[in-house]
Amino acid sequence: MIWQQLINGLMLGGIYVLIAVSFTLAIGILNFLNFSLPGLFMLGGVLTWALIGAGWHWSLAMLVALLAAAAVSLLVEQLSYKPMRNADPELPLVSSLGFLVLMENLVIVKWGSDQQSFPALIPDFNLRFGGLIIGTAQLISFLIAVGVVLWLSWFLKTTNTGRRLRAIAENRDTAEILGINLARLVPCVFVFSAVFTALGGILFALNYLQVSPFMGENIGFKGVAAMIVGGMGSIWGAIVGGLLIGLVEVLSIYFFGADVVNILVYGFLLLVLIVRPAGLLGRPISREKL
Amino acid sequence: MSGYQTGVLVFLAFNVIAAYSVYLPMAAGQLNLGIAGFMAIGAYTSAYLSNELGWSMLSSVPAGALASCLLATVVAVPVLRTHGIYLALATFALGQIIAAVFLNLEVVGAAAGYPVNEYVSPMVVVACAAGVVLLMVFLSRTRYGLYLTAIKNDATVTDLMGVNVRGMQISAFAIGAMVAGFGGALYGHHYSFIEAQHFNVLLSVFTVLYVLLGGTQTVLGPLVGAVFFTLLPEALRASDQWRYVIFAALIILMMLLRPQGLLTASLLRSLGGRKQGMQQ
Questions:
Q1: Which of A57, A157, B123, B268 has its CA 20 to 30 A from that of B48?
Q2: Any domain includes A201
């Protein structure tokens, strides 16, 4: 059933697309490889699980989880990005890694390090198309992921704020001279990327019915791979990269078993980095980013 | 010395060795996020040679370091085509691949882990760590150390000065990997057990943190960083669950307040100046 595997791969890829888009926003506009994003991915899933467990309605739980991720992301902006944006490139990267370790361990302190099972919110109803099975939860999350990313692409292309953000991506100093209010727009980027990645975490929990403090490390880092494969700083690249990584993962499980997933996914990443560092859809690097 | 103190000392020695394996490539401007993978190569190679082929530790541990060095030299040629953040991600991917390969290698126990027959005593480990520190201090005073700093500051100008930039970069990468493999080989022989899960991303990341927090301007920075950030969590052990939380908060604070690291060149100078003043 190779077609079935292709569909599963695309559905999983939808979640990688969300994470890859968050990374690509941060690096494309701000030149900041934000390693706190896998932590926010985890926070989205775990907080939703915890609040539903506390008896909240699922919609409210998700909303609060997204808001919390946005708030933490603003903290990252204040403490990691802002003071060090002109320093050595490693420093904000390391500082944002500090946030990842902090979030993981706070969650472990509060809820322990075990994997928790997430309640099935969407009734287990499968759609069948001539022998192919698509779960409703899968389909809904895939549509949400792709929809949100397409909306972002439209937003960056046509709205005034989007144009300003693209100007910052082109050249921050020139953008500032032209009167763009960086102090107001930069936090927007952090909120956007936090909401996307946390949404990815929630959709992952919905689909696979599990959350754990380490899901950011396991899943979120593959989002980085997706971003690179597609091309840093390109939204369409993130879409292509995310879907490709999802396909590689599912197909390698299908053909070789679950054990070799990391070898193939990261081998693919390494290959792309060596052969075509700009990624599949990225513009060739004229000057090094970050 | 109590068993606990010995344990902490050995842990510190391993962290110091690891920190210098990250420091040397970093001195040439390479951020290696896959150092745990090279530790795994050293650990598994030497353990296999000791266990299955009956080599003595005197030959199997150096062989582990050498294997790691060889692999690094081979992969350095394609990997060092990338720079900066791309290099960091390429080494990150490499570390993930190596760990995943060992996790599936049945010959060395795969996911169940691999027991090691020989045993290295704590004092030998500490002596080896001291040896690594001395070697690095020595390297930093040679022309080689100067070349690496020059490449970090401006590779083009260094090239124009007639230095073989590419060769230097590959050698820094490979020697760093060799030190990592050496540490890994000792690790396996000391704890008598290795598992692939130990050599994960976070091990690489924490090692990089020791170096950056200690400071990369001087050769003693990694030592200070490794000592400070090994002993600090131990001192905070009273609040067991919270120590990593506090550790992470400290990372963020340190980067905010003292991004150049604990030990800087100017700090060393001012300390030295005070000493001279007292002598007069």
A1: B123
A2: yes
Residues of chain B whose pLDDT is less than 50? Answer: 276-280
> Which contacts qualify for A53-58: CB closer than 8 Å, 24 or more apart?
A58/A121
Domains in chain A, number: 1
**Residues B189 and B119: beta-carbon distance below 8 Å:** yes
A224–B89 CB contact, under 8 Å: yes
Express each pLDDT in B173-187 by its tens digit: 999 999 999 999 999
pLDDT at B133: 92
Q: Which of A94, A106, A273 is facing B209, going by the closest CB pair?
A: A94
Q: Domain residues for A28? A: 2-275
A211: domain CATH number is 1.10.3470
Residues on chain B touching A93 (C-beta within 8 angstroms): 85, 88
Say if A290 falls within a structural domain.
Answer: no
Residue B90 sits at the chain A interface (C-beta within 8 Å): yes
In terms of Cβ atoms closer than 10 Å to its own Cβ (0-12, 13-18, 19+), residue B78 is middle
For residue A35, the chain B residue with the least C-alpha distance is B205
Q: What is the ipTM of this complex?
A: 0.81
